[in-house]
Specification:
Number of helices: 2
Radius of gyration: 22 Å
CATH architecture of the largest domain: Sandwich
Shape: globular
Number of domains: 2
Largest sheet: 7 strands, antiparallel
Structural class: mainly beta
Strand order of the largest sheet: 20-13-10-15-8-7-28
Number of strands: 28
Strand content: 35-45%
Oligomer: single chain
CATH superfamily of the largest domain: Jelly Rolls
Helix content: under 10%
């Protein structure tokens, strides 16, 4: 038996209360001696018990069976999935770029299709990130997954996905993002034949909306546009597998029922999705080139002041009107390491070769910026108002250097001639 529905609740960080059966939520207290319908109460806590109210994340789940009910875990193969600490190779200052991952020919579900590009930090120390790509052509039906190492930020690029989670169902299409909190169990169903995209596994503090500062009360991503699922449960028995990522290793356990059996829940620790097209861009209406922080969607703070463990930045359709200004991104070097992906369209700072599904990495303090063709185009552009439509790119930015995996360094997807895209930049110095 499976309850149905693709209903959502609006808001970021809200304390929700939702039930798939009327009366399933206890009305008198959070954790009564007996619950309606014989459900088990179980608390899921994502932050320290003593965390301040503004950052505390928790939910009470009322489920058919408690999460403890499964056979012992045993280690299983990890394929091309890797985890911090990343020691495959020394971090490279070279600019890196990869072609899109090809769609697999053999049956591959979302979990089997994850390939790690690189990362930093250590999940045991709850700091840093891992950056993955995924490709899939098969749904997860009787296999379920949860990540005890980090929060999963998923950016589909090809193919719509349906995430069946403990808290309900999220249907996510390219152009939207999905976040699955640490420890939440889920399975992924393909709505189309194939799927491809990007994942950032956040070992640090959970993602949240950035402060707006001088922007004021409105702009960037609005809390109301983030959608959380309503309760929706599976009451299925059979032979299933539960896979956990714990300590950088995949573990698998037999389980005789679907673990997505939460009939009701209340709290603010929940999966959610967001449509990047709803991002309210801020930009100059006079001159100069603002810093990319004006495109920040979500942020995971660092313990080091004035740095972030992770930032998600997006570049959606927008107007460009700056006068007396080079409009494409300038040449720059950052304290942050930048991993970029393209969901659809063309990115203004790259003239050719960077197609949807591609990825690039510009590590900490490595010089980068528009390639030669994009520079010439920007330098000679007629500075009339221009609408940059049909484009959606994003950045995973992190305070630490990103160390690449052997796969990322050796795969045929690497553009070995990426550096040549800047070699056509001409000397323009004219003293006097």
């Amino acid at each position: 038996m499976t309850s149905s529905g693709l209903l959502y609740q609006s808001g970021f960080g809200n304390e929700f209360a939702t039930e798939a059966l009327a009366g399933a939520l206890p009305r008198e207290q959070n954790s009564p001696q007996t619950n309606p319908f014989g459900l088990y109460g179980e608390q899921l806590t994502g932050t320290s018990f003593t965390a301040s109210r503004t950052v505390s994340r928790w939910s009470w789940l009322y489920r058919i069976r408690p999460a403890v009910l499964h056979q012992p875990f045993h280690e299983t193969g990890v394929g091309l999935l890797r985890s911090g600490p990343f020691n495959d190779a020394v971090p490279t200052p070279n600019q890196m770029r990869w072609a899109p991952m090809p769609v697999p020919t053999k049956p591959t579900d979302f979990l089997d299709g994850i390939v790690t590009i690189g990362g930093n930090g250590d999940p045991a120390m709850q700091t840093g990130v891992a950056i993955h790509l995924y490709v899939a052509n098969t749904s997860m039906i009787d296999r379920f997954f949860y990540d005890a190492d980090g929060e999963l930020l998923i950016v589909p690029q090809l193919g719509k996905l349906r995430f069946h989670t403990e808290m309900g169902i999220l249907e996510v299409t390219p152009g939207e993002i999905c976040v699955i909190p640490r420890g939440v169990r889920f399975r992924v169903e393909l709505i189309e034949d194939t799927a491809r995209g990007y994942i950032c596994e956040n070992y640090g503090q959970y993602l949240r909306l950035p402060e707006l500062g001088p922007i004021g009360t409105a702009g960037l991503a609005a809390a109301r546009d983030f959608l959380a699922p309503v309760a929706c449960y599976e009451d299925r028995e059979g032979t299933f597998r539960l896979v956990a990522k714990f300590g950088g290793v995949l573990w698998e356990a037999e389980i005789d029922h679907s673990p997505l059996d939460v009939v009701a829940w209340r709290g603010n620790l929940t999966p959610y999705k967001y449509d990047l097209a709803k991002f309210n861009c801020m930009n100059t209406v006079s001159w100069d080139h603002p810093d990319p922080s004006i495109y920040c969607v979500l942020v995971s703070p660092s313990t080091i002041p004035n740095t972030n463990n992770l930032e998600l930045t997006c570049f959606p359709p927008r107007w460009s009107v700056a006068d007396h200004t080079f409009r494409p991104p300038p040449f720059h070097r950052n304290i942050a390491s930048e991993f970029m992906g393209l969901i659809y369209g063309q990115y203004i700072g790259k003239a050719e070769g960077f197609v949807p599904g591609s990825a690039s990495l510009h590590n900490c303090m490595s010089g980068h910026g528009p390639d030669a063709a994009a520079f010439e185009r920007g330098a000679q552009a007629d500075l009339k108002p221009e609408y940059l439509g049909n484009t959606m790119a994003f950045l995973f930015e992190t305070q630490l250097q990103i160390r690449l995996t052997q796969f990322a360094l050796q795969t045929e997807l690497v553009d070995r001639d990426y550096y040549t895209h800047w070699q056509g930049i001409k000397k323009q110095f004219r003293p006097g």
